[in-house]
Design a protein that fits this description.
Blueprint lengths: L4 E4 L3 E5 L5 E6 L2 E4 L4 E4 L3 H18 L6 E4 L4 E5 L2 E2 L2 E8 L2 H7 L6 E11 L8 E2 L1 H6 L5 H24 L2 E13 L2 E5 L7 E5 L9 H4 L5 H13 L3
Antiparallel strand pairs: 1-2, 2-3, 3-7, 4-5, 6-7, 8-12, 9-10, 9-12, 10-11, 12-13, 12-14
Helix pairs in contact: 1-6
Bound molecules: uridine-5'-diphosphate (UDP).
Uridine-5'-diphosphate binds next to strand 9, helix 2, strand 12 and strand 14.
Length: 235
C-alpha cells in the first residue's frame, strides 16, 4: 500500500487515513529497547503485535473503553481515529519489575500492596523522564481533569486486562498506555501488546514479552505467539 506517511515511529507508521478524521496505523517488525540504542528487525513481530493489540482493543471497547480503533485493514494495518497524542506515557504496575525495581530497589516479581500508576514524559531526547501531576499541568501537557481521566481509565483497563489474562494463565505485571484527544474526548490510542506490557506465564513465570528482546533471553516471538494463541481462545 502506498498511503502518504505522516509519521514514522520506532515500531509503527502513521499514514493519511481514508478521511479527515482518521489515520492508518501500520505495525513494523522493528524492535527497539533502551531508548532506541538496541534495535533489530524481527520478522513477523508487526503481525503478531497487530493481532494481539486489535483483540485487546476490541475486548476493551466491548467493555466500555473508548479506543482509537475503527477498522482492521490487514495483518499489520488498521484505520484509527485521528487523535492528538497526550505527550505522557501512563504506566500501571501490579508487580515490581523493570525500572520500578531498579529505581526503588524492590526485587522483580515482588507483589505490590497496591496498584501504582505513574506518568513519564514522551520524549526520546530526554529519555522519557518520570513526571508528576503538578509538573504535567505546569508545563501544559494536560489538564488536571485530563490527568484524572487518564488515571481512572488506566485503572479500569488494568482491571479488565487482569481479568482476561488470568483466564489465559498469564500474569499482567505492568503495562504502558497512551491516550489522545479526539472529538473533545480523551481516548485510548497506540497499542497494547507484548512490546508495551510485561506478561509472565502464571505457572512458570516465563516471560512472554519484550524483556526477552531487551535481555537477550532467547526466541522473542515465541512468547508473543503464545500470548496470541491464548487470546484467540479467550478474548
Ligand atoms: N514501556 C513501554 N514503553 C516505554 C517504557 C515502558 O511500553 O517507553 C512499558 C514496558 O514494556 C513495561 C512497562 O511499560 O511493560 C513499565 O516499563 P518500565 O518503566 O519498567 O521500563 P523498562 O524497564 O521497560 O525500561
Amino acid at each position: 500500500m502506498s498511503e502518504k506517511v505522516l509519521y514514522e515511529g520506532k515500531s509503527k507508521i502513521i499514514c493519511e487515513g481514508p478521511d479527515a478524521n482518521s489515520y492508518i496505523m501500520r505495525y513494523k517488525d522493528t524492535a527497539t529497547a533502551f531508548n532506541g540504542e538496541k534495535k533489530e528487525d524481527i520478522s513477523g513481530k508487526g503481525k503478531l503485535n497487530s493481532a494481539i493489540s486489535n483483540l485487546i482493543f476490541e475486548y476493551l471497547a466491548k467493555n466500555g473503553i473508548e479506543t482509537h480503533l475503527i477498522k482492521i485493514i490487514d495483518d499489520t494495518s488498521a484505520v484509527v481515529k485521528k487523535a492528538e497524542i497526550v505527550m505522557v506515557e501512563v504506566i500501571v504496575r501490579n508487580v515490581a519489575a523493570g525500572s520500578f525495581s531498579k529505581r526503588f530497589g524492590v526485587p522483580e516479581g515482588t507483589a505490590l500492596k497496591n496498584i501504582t500508576t505513574e506518568f513519564s514524559l514522551k520524549s526520546d531526547e530526554l529519555g522519557d523522564p518520570m513526571i508528576n501531576d503538578s509538573q504535567i499541568t505546569a508545563i501544559d501537557i494536560a489538564s488536571e481533569a485530563e490527568i484524572s481521566h487518564m488515571r481512572s481509565q488506566a485503572l479500569k483497563i488494568n482491571e479488565l486486562l487482569c481479568a482476561l489474562f488470568i483466564k489465559m494463565g498469564i500474569k499482567l505485571i505492568d503495562f504502558k498506555l497512551e491516550f489522545g484527544r479526539a472529538g473533545g474526548k480523551i481516548i485510548l490510542c497506540d497499542e497494547i501488546s507484548p512490546d508495551s506490557c510485561r506478561f509472565w506465564d502464571a505457572a512458570t513465570n516465563k516471560k512472554l514479552d519484550k524483556d526477552v528482546f531487551r535481555r537477550d533471553l532467547g526466541d522473542v516471538l515465541e512468547g508473543y505467539r503464545e500470548v496470541l494463541k491464548r487470546l484467540e481462545s479467550n478474548a
